[in-house]
Design a protein that fits this description.
With 372 residues, the chain is α/β, with parallel strands linked by helices. It is 42% helix and 15% strand. Helix 4 links the parallel strand 3 and strand 4. It is globular. The N terminus is likely disordered.
Length: 372
Amino acid sequence: MSASPSPVSGSLSADPAALADPARMGAYVLPGRVSDPRPVITQARAAEDLGLGSVWLSERWGTKDLGVIAGALGQATSDVRIAAGVTHFMIRHPAVLASMAMTAQGMTGGRFVLGFGRSVASMWTAVGLPPVTNRILIDSVDLLRRLCNGDKVSYEGPAGHFPAMRLSDLPDAPPPPLVLAAIGPKTLALGGAHFDGVLLHPFLTPEAVARSAKTVRTAAEAAGRDPASVRVYATVITACGLSAGEEAAVVGGRAVTYFQIPGFGEQLAGTNGWDPAVLRNLRAHPQLAGVRGSADFSRTRNQLTGAARALPPEWLDSSSAVGSAAHCVERLRDYRAAGADELVLHGSTPEQLAPVVTAARPAQARSSRSPR
């Protein structure tokens, strides 16, 4: 089993081929809601066979438990990095979270990446946990790092009361990189100052990615860190060569699940420089009547696709990679040129991404590469 790949940060190559290097791409496995998690194995193997650098899991309670799936993927793959995109600090005791992280590192030869988000306050209120503040994020990432380094940790503060914590045994592997999902400038800056990377939200335009990357790197420099050491991951909804119905579900239906959430949709629109007043039309759509929280918990794919017609087509066109393989590759190059160190392709499964990944690979590499 190979050691963890060492992604190269810093200035981006001007070579168009390098900007679409599959090794600088990742893909989500089990995108969206699923009732059967077992396809994650074939999806991760497909991603590795394509030469992608990482696979990402958006943890959901019930069928997408991070610890279980990371353990399974660690044994089903040999090179691809296995990333949480995302989980949350407050749902596991810090010692349990650190134990899971270091066990995953030991089982994968150092290929694990932990991504965290803050979610929305209503979610935490519903399950009896405090809303995640900036202070909780800063303290939690520090606690996790110290535990993964083998330190004895005592803490009392916004993140909880923990008199004495320590991992009794550690594998021969480094602590995993810690990544923060972010949209707004304050969270982007927090990621730049305190985390190893920042995961940008889907449905950002390349221009918004450029502004976000600048915010992250400026904050890193202000905190006395090397800006190139903080990795920027741009999540790009990608639908290449799909049927019209599948494309509408992957792009439009998924967009609805983000933009219809009050406050969250406005934040996304504002980041892109779009008029948030447009979101009133979306939320007034008959298919979204009475929805609270994320619409994909209570609406079918067809219902979400229907509601997506209330969104301006130019919003979706300018913030995703859709269409022919050649067009998708050009869009992905735009995102890399905007300052993203790595692209995380979302919406389509790794098998569905084969045409765009193959088109992105230089001709000589395509001819020499064979399936695993």
